[in-house]
Amino acid sequence: MSFTAEWLELRAPADAAARDPALRAAAAEHLGRDGVALDLGCGPGAACRALPEAAGWRLVDADARLLALATARCPGAETVRADLADLAPLPFRDARLVTAFALLDLAGEAWLEALAGRVAAAGAGLYAPLCYDGTIAWDPPLPEDAAIVAAFNAHQRRDKGLGPALGPEAATVMARAMAARGYRVRLAPSPWRLGPQQDALHRSLVAGIAEAAAEAGARGAAGWAQARLAAIGSGCSVGHLDILALPAGASTQSKTTSESRP
Ligand SMILES: C[S@@+](CC[C@H](N)C(=O)[O-])C[C@H]1O[C@@H](n2cnc3c(N)ncnc32)[C@H](O)[C@@H]1O
Known about the structure:
By secondary structure, this protein is α/β, with parallel strands linked by helices. The protein has a domain at 5-134 and 160-193 and 237-246: Vaccinia Virus protein VP39 (Rossmann fold), CATH 3.40.50. The protein has helices spanning 5-18, 21-31, 46-50, 64-73, 109-122, 145-156, 170-179, 199-215, 221-230; strands at residues 36-40, 56-61, 78-81, 97-99, 125-139, 184-189, 192-194, 235-246. Strands 1, 2, 3, 4, 5, 6, 7 and 8 form an 8-stranded mixed beta sheet that branches. Strand 1 (36-40), helix 3 (46-50) and strand 2 (56-61) form a beta-alpha-beta unit. It is globular and about 50 Å long.
């Protein structure tokens, strides 16, 4: 599945505003002063920007253009152009933290289990913010919103190259997989809250939702998009979850806003 640099750059400020600050701080604390991070699906370098504390980065993506952008943002990073479908050859060795920003909802259960196994075998932590949770709400709402979001969510569950995607369920499945390996797991909400300042992102989001919903068989997706674009100043909230999973022995001083022990 391909993502344009333009879309990822457009969403970057909303992502940065949405990520739970306590989980980010705990991830940075886990890295310490000398921890190396392995970023899966690096895109144009969101993780690198969010965690400047890392002593070094290994960036993995299938897309050469995105890897080049990430490298420019993350001087000295080791880059790996690879398909994440096969985790075996990826450089998990000695990584203190594995990051996967806005990635896990694209993956299926078997892949998430395999990832949990690789992270645990390396003794690394996992920080995976911005997993879409299946909720999108507008204020004021339109009568068609619920049907369009349901069709969009069905599309989210299609195979994106990492097995039949779990979409909205991915975060809780991953949290359980890490807890089963003895990890301390924390989940925190990280919703986008779009207002008039985020019109460009909102427009692009509506177009993407309508396209996916139509592909998933929703009737009237184009009309819905027209009505939504006509009301683009309305508020929109898109639900996400952030996950931080740390090995049981790792210390974190910061308190979390929410905690899960699935
Ligand atoms: C939603 S984007 C997130 C990018 C970045 N982490 C961010 O937060 O901006 C998902 C990223 O994963 C990469 N990706 C998706 N499936 C992949 C696969 N099978 N192998 C390698 N990279 C993949 C895409 O190229 C893209 O950069």
